[in-house]
Write a structure and sequence with these properties.
This protein is mainly beta. Helix content is 8%, strand content 65%. It contains six helices and 54 strands. The strands form 26 sheets. The chain has a four-stranded mixed sheet with strand order 51-54-52-53. The chain is flat.
């Protein structure tokens, strides 16, 4: 009974499943595809927090800077230092007998001397020093400098120009134009000018040249003399002297041998000490960070819910009467379990925090004297002073002799004795008379340029050439057809640079001659003639005189001590003494920088069933798409990358077919160039590139089959070793698609 029930149940299930083996009411000429409607799943993104947000604390420790503080360890003050009086020993003369004079009588003397009397004064005679001459060389211009002109000919060049040998015209279809030949002269070389040289003209002239300069000579005019009488003193007048002696007396004098002075005594200053305190170091706070604490956890996310699908049993039902074993198999709606994903998460147990500890606590000091230091300084209690002590002067008494009346003299006069002699004197000195000597000349001949060279312009006529050309005599009268002019390229000579003249300098021709010139004019040389003297004896009487004989004062050398500078006190400034103390100053206290670490999220994609499938349906399709259809994709050489044009082709042809829920095959082919293995690999990569693009457009990958056939399915004769055109090879490089059954 159970077998019967199982057979009936399997028959019912098989009938329900295969009731649609063929479509009902098919239309002739159409193709159908049997499709099992798939489950439509959509992806849904779920964001899961895998790590919470928390605070991250960073301690920035206190920053200190060291400062130097200058403190006074000894106050400034003044000390007195005695500058003792300065003394020196001076030697001084004490006059014990005043200076006086006495007269000594110097007796007169009679002395006979020989004296030279000038009887003829010295004079000068003149002798002629003749002029000095020398020969010098000088240049005489025998032919003056001139110029010559040389013609620089014009530069001619050749240029090409077009001569119209047949003018542009028109021809008529009905009445042709009439032509005749004419002769015309064309300039093939333009007219220009050239220069001919007109040479310079010269003439010979006679010119007088000085060959010896004019000079002078001197003649001497002798001096004139005369005689005159002169009176000479042979014994001068004199006198004699009588002496009157001086008179003397005695005096007493008191002398200071040591001057009065003073001395100073110093009473020194007294000093003491005092202790001062200062801030030696600042202490900042100490911050201790207790970091955040985390615990580990997990979270389970259902990425695909539980479903069910139909499945056929592996063994057929018992007593199956059908020839097709699939008819007797059981169909079961089996459960498909849900798919889950486990994500590890981190949870915040305690957030970060800061523990603050004051600086003085860690220093181990009391808060009152935290960071304090002391130093000692020296101060003046009583300033220094001075006491003055006087020293009296020391004197001594001595005796001196002084002159009360000086000595004098009395004079007696004696007359002079004279004698007369003759001497010669100069009346007029010698002179010179100048006689002019004429210069000597000589005639020389030289060539001078009268007319400078010039140029004469010679006209060179233009060169012409006679050519024949055709000209239109009678114009056409009907429809005009333009006939372009016929030109002929000819060469002609043109003047590039006109002819000019080049001036060549002709240097002057000189001739070297000698002439005598006076280098030094004539002068006179004075010859000294000594004076003529005569010897006269005369008596010289020295008068009687007195000679004053100074009687020096009689002195006694004594020494005395003199104070040159009194004693003083010098104030010595005692500068205050300082020392540099280093102290640590808190620049910035410890602080906490808080950084919020954001939560970490993870995005999980889960599949959600949108439409339940599993129904078998028949869909009519275009018969063309069941066969292979070309996609017009032009792949770059050796590339498997889709261009924008290729993507547009896929969007237009392939996506509308896949919108009906069918499955397709993507087939890609290459030409025969290259190895078979590389071509197959390239075709597979190109087919996969199309598949990847369809998946990016939302097509399920289970509905796409991609195959690369390489060069195994050529459409023409272009196999290995066959020469083909690029167009024939292009026919083999193709990508195709066809619809396949999605059952």
């Amino acid at each position: 009974m159970k077998k019967v029930l199982l057979t009936i149940l399997s028959f019912v299930v098989c009938s329900a499943v295969f009731a649609q083996d063929l479509p009902t009411n098919p239309e002739p000429g159409k193709c159908y595809v049997r499709c099992v409607t798939p489950d439509v799943w959509v992806n849904q993104d779920i964001t899961v927090q895998v790590a919470p947000a928390y605070k991250k604390l960073k301690v920035v420790p206190a920053q200190y800077r060291t400062e130097n503080e200058e403190v006074v360890i000894q106050s400034g003050g003044q000390e007195l230092s005695v500058v003792p009086a300065q003394y020196e020993n001076q030697t001084f003369e004490v006059v014990t007998q005043a200076a006086s004079q006495r007269l000594e009588k110097v007796a007169g003397s009679t002395d006979t001397t020989t004296e030279e009397i000038v009887t003829q004064a010295g004079y000068q005679e003149l002798t002629v020093v003749p002029a000095q001459y020398s020969n010098e060389t000088f240049e005489v211009v025998s032919a003056e400098a001139g110029q010559t002109l040389s013609v620089v000919p014009a530069k001619l060049g050749t240029e090409s120009f077009e001569v119209v040998v047949q003018e542009a015209s028109q021809r008529l279809e009905v009445v042709p134009a009439q032509y005749e030949n004419r002769t015309e002269t064309v300039v093939v070389q333009a007219a220009y000018t050239k220069l001919q040289t007109v040479p310079a003209q010269y003439e010979t002239r006679t010119e007088t040249v000085v060959v010896q300069s004019g000079g002078q000579r001197l003649e001497v005019v002798p001096a004139k003399w005369a005689t005159e009488s002169v009176q000479v003193v042979s014994q001068p007048a004199s006198s004699r002297v009588e002496i009157v002696p001086a008179q003397y007396s005695t005096e007493s004098v008191e002398v200071v041998v040591q001057e009065a002075s003073q001395r100073l005594e110093v009473i020194p200053a007294t000093w003491g000490t005092e202790t001062l305190s200062y801030k030696k170091q600042d202490f900042g706070s100490t911050l201790t960070v207790v970091p955040a604490k985390f615990t580990s956890g997990y979270q389970t996310i259902e990425v695909k819910p539980a479903t069910a699908k139909w499945g056929m049993s592996d063994t057929p039902a018992a007593d199956c009467q059908s020839s097709d074993p699939n008819d007797c198999r059981y169909w079961c709606y089996k459960n498909v379990p849900a798919q889950n994903i486990t994500i590890n998460t981190t949870e915040l147990a305690t957030d970060a925090q800061v523990i603050t500890k004051p600086g003085c606590d860690q220093g181990g000091n009391n808060s009152s004297d935290c960071g304090m230091g002391t130093y000692t300084r020296r101060v003046v209690q009583t300033p220094a002073t001075t006491r003055v002590i006087d020293i009296p002067a020391v004197t001594k008494t001595i005796k001196t002799t002084v002159m009360s009346a000086p000595p004098t003299t009395r004079v007696v006069e004696i007359p002079a004795v004279t004698k007369t002699i003759k001497k010669t004197v100069l009346v007029s000195p010698a002179t010179t008379r100048v006689i002019d000597i004429p210069s000597v000349t000589k005639d020389v001949t030289r060539k001078v340029m009268v007319t400078p060279p010039t140029t004469r312009v010679v006209d060179v006529p233009a060169v012409t050439k006679t050519i024949d050309r055709t000209v239109m005599v009678t114009p056409p009268t009907t429809r005009v057809i333009e006939i372009p002019a016929v030109t002929k390229t000819m060469k002609r000579t043109v003047v590039l640079e006109p002819a000019t003249t080049r001036v060549s300098e002709i240097p002057a021709v000189t001739r070297t001659m000698k002439r005598t010139v006076m280098t030094a004019p004539p002068t006179t040389r004075a010859i000294d003639i000594p004076a003529k003297t005569t010897t006269v004896r005369r008596t010289i009487i020295s008068p009687e005189t007195t000679r004053v004989v100074d009687i020096p004062a009689v002195t006694k050398t004594m020494k005395r001590t003199v104070m040159t500078a009194p004693p003083t006190t010098r104030v010595i400034d005692v500068p205050q003494k300082t020392t540099t103390l280093k102290r640590t100053v808190l620049a910035s206290d410890a602080r906490v920088e808080e950084v919020t670490v954001p939560a970490v999220n993870k995005t999980v994609t889960k599949e959600v069933l949108q439409t339940k499938g599993g129904l078998t349906t028949w869909k009519p399709v275009d018969c063309k798409i069941v066969e292979y259809n070309d996609l017009n994709i032009n792949w770059n050489l050796g590339s498997a990358t889709l261009t924008s044009a290729a993507k547009a082709e896929i969007d237009a042809k392939l996506l509308p077919v896949l919108a009906d829920g069918v499955s397709v095959e993507i087939a890609s082919h290459t030409d025969s160039r290259g190895s078979a293995s590389s071509n197959r690999s390239l075709s597979e990569r190109r087919a996969q590139a199309v598949t990847n693009y369809l998946i990016s457009k939302g097509i399920n990958s289970s509905r796409i089959v991609s195959n690369g056939y390489g060069e195994s399915r050529l459409t023409n004769r272009c196999s290995d070793g066959v020469s083909c055109t690029e167009r024939e090879h292009l026919a083999n490089r193709r990508t195709q698609f066809r619809v396949i059954n999605a059952n």
